[in-house]
Give the backbone structure.
Amino acid sequence: MKKLFALLTALLLLSSGAARAQNAENIRKIEDYLNNIKSMEATFVQMASNGATAEGRLFIKKPNKIRMEYADPTNVLIVGDGDFIVYNDTELDQVTHINYDDIPASLILANDIKIDGQKIKISDFYQDAGSTSITLDYADKGDLGPITLVFSNSPMELKQWKIVDPQSVEVSVSLYDIKKDNDLSDKIFKFKKAKSGGSYKKKK
């Protein structure tokens, strides 16, 4: 009986060690994927747990540049030039400046992402045959909530991110028609007030 117990214990230790090694490999792949993106553009669909939906066009250029053009009837333009992010409500003609540290999605804009369990911690991880989901939390987050990144496995590609806003509304942004590493001009990340109505025109 003692020999059987010892054998089972050894097998469990080997299994847990293999699982840790596999998780470490998966995390390394996620880091490499995110760090190797130079630019990205995609169509996005945004859905919230309160029933709100929107869509538009996303542009990212490392480091820290982002542009989200929402289609009608959503009257919003978001532009980040690397120093700060501008949220422009075109219907109300309001402009709000947001610090990068105040949005969890700024994680995917950095040049050197390290999921080391210190500044960025893993609070949930799931993988099946088709996709990988990882939820990342910040050690010194203040009011900043976690972000969940969802990737396809083969090939590895960012398909969605999910956050929970300060009003406890879960917001997911799904990406389609992704193009990576195109030569995006810095001009599109300079803020200019958009005309009333969404700045992205949906294809007919």
The mean pLDDT is 83. Residues 137 and 146 are 5 Å apart (CA to CA). The chain has one domain: 2-189.
